[in-house]
Specification:
Bound molecules: D-serine
CATH topology of the largest domain: Aspartate Aminotransferase, domain 2
Number of strands: 17
Shape: globular
Distance between the termini: 21 Å
Strand content: 5-15%
Largest sheet: 7 strands, mixed
Number of domains: 2
Strand order of the largest sheet: 4-12-11-10-9-5-6
Number of helices: 16
CATH architecture of the largest domain: 3-Layer(aba) Sandwich
Oligomer: single chain
Length: 420
C-alpha cells in the first residue's frame, strides 16, 4: 500500500500551485542556500509531513483527547515526546507548538502576568523578535529590560546581565539568539537568573542540532524552560517544541493548549518524531560537526579576503559579516540583492553598534546547515567565499554576475538535494 502522495494529482488538479512548487524546487536546487535558519529536511520527514495525518483533529494530549479516533496520532505524539526526551535529556516535553514563536509565547503565558519584567537580549544584538521586541506580543504585554554584548568583543556581557538582573528583579530571563555566532554559557545565565529570583528560558531554535549532538553546552540541565524550533540545525519539519522541568509540565501544557493553540498539527508532530529519530543517529553528530567546520572555514576564508566578521569568527553554524570596514557604501540590503542575482541566498542583518535601519542594515548573516545537508565541505566553502567577495567587489555594476551565477549553478549540480 502506498500511504504517501507524490504530486501526480496536484499536477492535474491545480496547475498554478504545482508550477509554483516545481519552480521552488528548482530554485532550491540551483541556489547556494546560506540563510542560517533554513535547511533541507530528509525525504522521510517530507513524506510524513505530507501524510494523511493532516486530516486528524486531536485537541488535548496523548490519552486525554477531546475527539475520538486518536489512537494512532497518540502513538506518533508519544513517540515524538519520548524521542525528544532521550535526545535532549529533558524531564518534560511538549511537541505541539506550531512554531518557535508559539513555544516562547506559551512559556510567557505559563509564568508571567501582563506587566511582569523580562530580561532579554535585544534583536539588534542578535536576539529574537519574541524576546520582547516592542512590535511583538512579548514586548506589548511585558515590561522589557535588555542586556547586551560587550562592544569590543561582541560577546554577551554576563556581568552586565547580573547587574541589570539585580537592579530590575525580572520574573523571567531569556537567553538565546538568532544572530549570535559564539557559544552561550547557559549555566552561567541560569545561575544569574536564579540568584535574582527569576526563572530562565533558553531559546535554542538556532543551535538545537548542535546541542542534540553534544557540540554545544546544553541548557536543559540548568534552565527551567528550553524552547526550540525543529527545522533549523535540527533539520526537521517546520515547528516548535518546549522542554521544561517536571514541576512546570502542567502549566506549560495548559498554556499551549487551550491557552494559545487549538488542534495540534499531527502530520508535523509525526515528522518531528522522525526528525528526532534521525537526530539520535551517529550520522547526525557527524553532520553537525561538519556544519561547524564549514562555518569556521567560511569565516576564515572571508577574513583572509579582508572582510570583517563580527567577533572575529564563529563557534556555531553562522557568521555575521560586518560590511562597514571594507564596503562602507554598501548596505546589507545591497549585498543581499547583489548575491540574490547570482543565486546565492543570504539575509541582511543588523550588526553590533548598527548605524543603519533594520531594513537596510550593515551586515549579512551566513549559515552553513543547508549547504552541509547537500554534502558540501571545506573546499566548497573556500569557493563560495571567493564568489561572495567577487560579488561585493562588483557592486553596483555587477560585471561578474553572469559568470558567477554559472559557477553557482555548476557547483549546485555537483551536490544534489536529497530528493531524487
Ligand atoms: N526567522 C528566523 C531566523 O531567520 O533566524 C527566526 O525566527
Amino acid at each position: 500500500m502506498n500511504i504517501f502522495f507524490h504530486g501526480e494529482d496536484l499536477e492535474h488538479s491545480d496547475v498554478e500551485v504545482f508550477a509554483a512548487i516545481r519552480s521552488e524546487l528548482e530554485r532550491q536546487e540551483q541556489h547556494i542556500e546560506l540563510i542560517a535558519s533554513e535547511n533541507f529536511a530528509s525525504p522521510a520527514i517530507l513524506e510524513t509531513a505530507g501524510s494523511v495525518l493532516t486530516n486528524k483533529y486531536a485537541e488535548g494530549y496523548p490519552g486525554k483527547r477531546y475527539y475520538g479516533g486518536c489512537q494512532y496520532v497518540d502513538t506518533v505524539e508519544s513517540l515524538a515526546i519520548e524521542r525528544a526526551k532521550m535526545l535532549f535529556g529533558a524531564e518534560h516535553v511538549n511537541v505541539q507548538p506550531h512554531s518557535g514563536s508559539q513555544a516562547n509565547t506559551a512559556v510567557y503565558m505559563a509564568v508571567l502576568k501582563p506587566g511582569d519584567t523580562i530580561l532579554t537580549m535585544s534583536l539588534e544584538n542578535g536576539g529574537h523578535l519574541t524576546h520582547g521586541h516592542p512590535k511583538n506580543i512579548s514586548g506589548m504585554l511585558y515590561h522589557v529590560v535588555h542586556y547586551g554584548i560587550t562592544l569590543n568583543t561582541c560577546l554577551i556581557d554576563y556581568d552586565e546581565m547580573l547587574e541589570i538582573a539585580r537592579k530590575n528583579r525580572p520574573k523571567l530571563v531569556t537567553i538565546g539568539a538568532s544572530a549570535y555566532p559564539r557559544s552561550i554559557d547557559f549555566e552561567r545565565v541560569a545561575n544569574i537568573a536564579h540568584e535574582c529570583g527569576a526563572l530562565v528560558m533558553a531559546d535554542i531554535a538556532h543551535i538545537a542540532g548542535l546541542v542534540a549532538a553534544g557540540l554545544h553546552q546544553s541548557p536543559v540541565p540548568f534552565c527551567d524552560f528550553v524552547t526550540t524550533t525543529t527545522h533549523k540545525t535540527l533539520r526537521g519539519p517546520r515547528g516548535g517544541m518546549i522542554m521544561c522541568k517536571q514541576q512546570f509540565a502542567k502549566d506549560i501544557d495548559s498554556a499551549l493548549f487551550p491557552g494559545i493553540q487549538g488542534g495540534p498539527l499531527m502530520h508535523i508532530i509525526a515528522a518531528k518524531a522522525v526528525c528526532f529519530k534521525e537526530a539520535l543517529s551517529p550520522m547526525f553528530k557527524k553532520y553537525q560537526h561538519q556544519i561547524i567546520k564549514n562555518a569556521s572555514c567560511l569565516a576564515e576564508e572571508l577574513q583572509a579576503l579582508q572582510l570583517s566578521i563580527v567577533s572575529g569568527g564563529t563557534d556555531n553554524h553562522l557568521l555575521l559579516v560586518d560590511l562597514r570596514d571594507s564596503y562602507p557604501e554598501i548596505s546589507g540590503k545591497d549585498a543581499q540583492f547583489a548575491l540574490d542575482k547570482v543565486n546565492i541566498t543570504t539575509n541582511r542583518n543588523t550588526v553590533p553598534n548598527e548605524t543603519r535601519s533594520p531594513f537596510q542594515t550593515s551586515g549579512l548573516r551566513l549559515g552553513t546547515p543547508a549547504l552541509t545537508s547537500r554534502g558540501m565541505k571545506e573546499p566548497e566553502m573556500k569557493q563560495i567565499a571567493n564568489m561572495i567577495k567577487l560579488v561585493l567587489d562588483n557592486i553596483p555594476h555587477g560585471e561578474e554576475s553572469f559568470a558567477i551565477r554559472e559557477e553557482v549553478i555548476d557547483l549546485c549540480s555537483k551536490f544534489p538535494l536529497p530528493y531524487k
